[in-house]
Amino acid sequence: LPESGVPQLVQPMIWDYAADLDVEGKVQLIEKYRRCGFSKVWFASAFKGATGVNQSLTLIGHHLKNHLEWLEVASRTPPDVLEGIALTGWQRYDHFSVLCELLPVAIPSLAVCLQALKNGGYSEKVKENVEKLLGMSNLEIDTYMR
Question: What does the record give under GO molecular function (predicted)?
Answer without folding.
Answer: hexosaminidase activity
